[in-house]
Amino acid sequence: MSSVIFDTEKFAAVARQAVAEGIVLLKNDKEVLPLSSGSNIALFGRTQFNYYKSGTGSGGMVNTKYVTGVREALEAYDRFTLNEKLKNTYDEWIKDNPFEAGEGWASEPWFQKEMPISLDLAKEVAASSDVAVVIIGRTAGEDQDNSTTEGSYLLTADECQMLENVRAAFDKMVVLINAGNIIDMKWMEEYTPDAVLYIWQGGQEGGNGALDVLSGDVNPSGRLTDTIAKNIEDYPSSQNFGGSKCNVQQEDIYVGYRYFETFAKDKVLYPFGFGLSYTEFSIEPVGFTYGEEEIEFDVKVTNKGSRKGKQVVQIYVSKPQGKLGNPARELVGFGKTKELQPGESETLNIVFTNYQLTSFDDSGVTGYKNAYVIEAGEYSFYIGDNVRTAEFAASFTQEETALFEQLSEALAPVVHFKRMKPELQADGSYKLIYESVPVATLKPDKLRKADLKPELPQTGDKGIKLVDVYDGKASMDDFIGQLSDEDLCCIVRGEGMSSPKVTPGCAGAFGGVTDSLLEKGIPTACCTDGPSGIRMDCGKKAFAMPNGTCLACAWNLELNEELYNWEGLELRKNKIDVLLGPGMNLHRNPLNGRNFEYFSEDPLVTGKNAAIQLKGMHKYGVTGTIKHFALNTQETGRHTVEHVASARAIRQIYLKGYEIAVKEGNAHAVMTTYGSVNGYYTASSYDLDTRILREEWGFDGIIMTDWWAKGGKSYHGNNSDMASIIRAQNDLYMVTSSAIDNTNRDNLAKELEKGKVTRFEIQRCAANICKFIMEKPVFARYIERGNELDEQLASEADDEELEFDKMIDLRIDESGVANINPADIKTARNSNNMITVSFKERGDYKLTMTVRANAKSELAQIPLSIFRDKLLVKMVTLTGEDKEWQTIEVPFDSCAMTFFLKLYFAQDGMEIKDIRFELVKSREEEFHKLFARMGEE
Ligand code: BGC
Questions:
Q1: 707 in contact with ligand 1, CB cutoff 6 A
Q2: Residue whose CA is at the smallest distance from ligand 1 atom 6
Q3: CA distance linking residue 675 with residue 106, whole number of Å
Q4: Which residues have C-beta within 8 Å of that of residue 391, sequence separation ≥ 6?
Q5: Where are the beta strands (DSSP E) in 724-794?
Q6: Is residue 706 annotated as part of the catalytic site, yes or no?
Q7: CB of 506 within 8 A of CB of 580?
Q8: Would you say the CB of residue 604 lies under 6 angstroms from ligand 1?
Q9: pLDDT (tens digit, 9 = 90+) per residue, 721-748?
């Protein structure tokens, strides 16, 4: 094997390329970009000090070794200089205006205070600069949506003033948006920047990616995966977004450009798929084949300009309106060229299936109820570099409406409402009308009962180990038959956060979580966040990757796969089997706080990106968890809200990406949401988890809940209703602190006794979990077969250095007790407190801490890792609900000499009342004897 397999420099190079390719150039007047070599840049905006590598919450908690922001990247680049006067002004100002982290989980402000820029300052700086580059930064994340307020979706007054004065003083003004999601862009009309780039949130290499585009080393080839409308109210979902009880999805399948291109073209500032380049391309369809199952286009792209670059080709279909009604355009295929030299051409072959031309009939109006159909009429294809400019390329006529796939009613709404529909007008435009949505006629629970099979006979331990199933010496049924009721109730409970049974600081452990399960040869598997890098709350470093939106905007699946090859390797190196990502909810509305983790408003773009990331990780045997299944399109009221949608919108829009990830990406793990859809919490939705995901799509992996999620019927959610979760075949409840002690006090054993959940149903989930584990690296390591890669990776050094924020000296005198002043401990996010502990007397000691959570959100996760030298001895994760003082006790046995006690806080929000170190048992005599013996020897 080669010397080093996991090479972070190579990882970084791929990430840098991915960021550069994801950046979208919205405007470039006077060819202000790329910046000429030798430019002196006036860099404005306080985000130069706090480049947002990602949003906040679980998807952003990657401890990185470094983050290269825009300023660092520009400073390190020898072909540009930064305006010294401006730089010094910012450096002075930042001393009194440090980054405001907020208090705890989900409370980091979505923007940071901007330095006021007066016209005088702007003019003074302009006199000695060639160009102004202004950075606008926004974060967002879990537990809180964006809002139409200044500092969130809208610019702040300070930002506007900065843009106004910089515009007035400079001939050339370039604006960079460092955000995970589109924000209001109407200000472009007022402040007329010459160039605008969405640089997104690019992970630890983000600034370098932006530099490459500014300098022209990379020609921008990113294209929007969302529509930028003029006003937030223009998005069709806005009227039904953000409710904490219920959101009725009246816009139905008309999400994003599907709505705008059909009903409101004039409301669009930048259409879906849009993005400029420093060169120009021609796009010419040169071949079209319409086959029984597949449609194929050959599209010739020629670089007509004078700079090398890549181009994205997008193919849209316009289906007949038929009886169902359809959007004016729907993306059916796309491709990206290699880097084309000026004058060079490449012909892309883009293939898609007839399935992509179907519509789901949930009413029976076509004659086929609950079926995918191809309605009669003309199907026209449009090809181009965005949805608006794509030109007619070919068409075919479907003579008669044809049944494509007959399915059955599943996840249909249980309340009556009306949805949008187009009505074709004589002039070819569409009028927006509303029609009633068909409601459910079947009861999921009845269907479940009809599907029940007899339980496996319980045989007791027959000595069959999981490896025997793996080796084909025993069947899975025989193996599962050995599990007692206690085993069964435990195996469906995942443990976490930060279980000591797996890699420190990870979100969950599952499988062999009790002695009895371990004895049967089930090892403990490990999962952690995700999506854009590995979260290890003990402070261990990992690579922070570009976020979902940025990667999707690159429209480069190959590159995304390569990036996730590296991610797979890093997971494997850290003994993590499952990443909790990709996140793949749709960007239904720009205000969703977690859009940065997701890809697009379009299901095809979403599904293809998720599938390729899975494929990337599968190369090294690990996998990802596609989340949050499904319709988790907002953070407001995320564990109470019910999403009401038609079966058509659910299948054609919200589930489509997942279906692609399962069928094309071979997804093995799915995470359900906190919320509910059409009557049931998703974790308890038999229709969603069993009938659609498993039976229709053939998924045979594991389904896990989101962390501490609820189960049950909408509005009656309960996080101990494990029975309803298992009935739906959501295999794993994530997470409890101790499976054997049933710390979550779930109702599984009781409901089993009462017959409300059958033994067969728990056995079925247990088998899903065991099968999953058998196929993952944890099992290869456990049976010591096929684990050569693990050995190689283990032999590669971690180049982590010991860093700390606080150093405390703790000496324990003859009294045997010493207190640490809690005020001396830094508990802010990412704080590393190093305490040198030394004693008068050798012996067994005990650390006692009294702590509680002080967080606004009940779902806040506040982890504390306690290390003895480099060894993690205890991890405690409080949630926002832990408002009462609680005591943590950690034994420190056989302390013979000084050691480092390290207290690492991964998040804000833990309060400490007292910390005490005390002697429990003296071992002075033992040590004396031992040393005496050693002396004799
Ligand atoms: C998030 C999930 C995440 C989990 C574990 C939850 O708060 O919604 O996306 O994977 O925590 O950290």
A1: yes
A2: 707
A3: 18
A4: 382, 383, 384
A5: 733-736
A6: yes
A7: no
A8: no
A9: 999 999 999 999 999 989 999 999 999 9
User: For residues 584, 588, 592 and 596, what is the CA-based torsion angle, rounded to 10 degrees?
Assistant: 40
Could you tell me which residues come within 8 angstroms of residue 179 by beta carbon, excluding any fewer than 6 positions away?
52, 136, 137, 138, 139, 140, 198, 200, 201, 596
Q: Does residue 529's CB lie within 6 angstroms of at least one atom of ligand 1?
A: yes
Q: What is the pLDDT of residue 937?
A: 47
Q: Which of 143, 529, 706, 908 is catalytic?
A: 706
Both structure tokens of 62: 């990657």
pTM of the model: 0.91
What does R_g of the chain's alpha carbons equal in angstroms? 29
- Given the CA of residue 597, which atom of ligand 1 is nearest to it? 9
From edge to edge, which strands make up the β-sheet containing 702-704? 702-704, 669-672, 623-629, 578-580, 524-529, 508-511, 493-495, 733-736
Q: Which two tokens stand for residue 484?
A: 């007692």
Q: How far is 763 from 892, CA to CA, in rounded Å?
A: 40
Residue nearest to atom 4 of ligand 1 (CA): 707
Q: Is the CB of 58 under 6 A from ligand 1?
A: yes
Q: How far is CA 189 from CA 111, 184, 203, 570, in A?
A: 22, 11, 30, 45
Cα 838 to ligand 1 centroid, rounded to whole Å: 39
Q: Which of 528, 580, 585 to mutate to test the pocket of ligand 1 (most atoms within 8 A of CB)?
A: 580
Closest CA to 538 of 832, 152, 225: 832
Q: What is the pLDDT of residues 598-629, one digit of tens each?
A: 999 999 999 999 999 999 999 999 999 999 99
Selection from 329, 334, 327 nearest residue 392 by Cα? 329
Concatenating the DSSP letter of every residue in 674-739 gives: SSEETTEEGGG-HIIIIIIIIIIT---SEEEPPTT--BSBTT--BTT-HHHHHHTT--BEEEES-T
Residue with token string 């069959």: 464
SS3 671: strand
Taking the centre of ligand 1 as the mean of its atom positions, its distance from the CA of residue 707, in whole angstroms, is 6
Kindly compute the dihedral angle of the four CA atoms of residues 390, 392, 396, 398, in this order, to the nearest 10 degrees.
60
CA distances from 302 to 27, 33, 276 (A): 22, 22, 15
Structure tokens at 445: 């629970």
The CB density around residue 547, as the number of other CB atoms within 10 Å, is 33
CA nearest ligand 1 atom 2, residue:
706
Distance in angstroms (rounded) separating the CA atoms of residues 180 and 52: 9
Are the C-beta atoms of 311 and 273 separated by less than 8 Å?
Answer: no
Under 8 Å between Cβ of 852 and 885? yes
Tens of pLDDT along 191-243? Answer: 999 999 999 999 999 999 999 999 999 999 999 999 999 999 999 999 999 99
Q: Which residues pair with 644 in a beta bridge?
A: 248
Strand arrangement of the beta sheet that strand 195-198 belongs to: 24-28, 195-198, 173-178, 131-137, 40-44, 81-82
**E-assigned strand segments in 160-305:** 173-178, 195-198, 228-229, 246-248, 268-270, 281-290, 294-303
Nearest C-alpha to atom 8 of ligand 1 is from which residue? 706
Please name the residue that has the structure tokens 């949930």. 362
Strand ordering across the sheet containing 910-922:
817-820, 910-922, 843-853, 886-895
